[in-house]
Write a structure and sequence with these properties.
0% helix, 55% strand
């Protein structure tokens, strides 16, 4: 009988939409760039921290509490550095 390798179960994911003013900001999660705003992505259930950054603006850190079967939308107003 062959041993069956079990893959670890992935945490359920939640739909997340992040927008920014001004748009076209970079969204990062755990040091990985997810894309530019407006962005629709999926993140694992639990507390997640994303960073929204754009040249000429201060970075904004967002803490998201994600629960199963729920979608989350966040909008961020980026403050200019000058």
């Amino acid at each position: 009988m062959e041993a069956v390798e079990k893959k670890p179960e992935e945490a359920p994911k939640v739909s997340v939409v992040i927008a920014s003013d001004p748009p076209d900001a970079t969204v990062s999660w755990k040091g990985t760039t997810l894309g530019k705003t407006p962005l629709k992505t999926e993140l694992p259930v639990g507390t997640q921290v994303v960073v929204v950054s754009r040249s000429g603006s201060f970075d904004e850190t967002i803490m998201l509490t994600l629960t199963p079967d729920e979608s989350v939308e966040r909008s961020v107003k980026l403050r200019p550095t000058n």
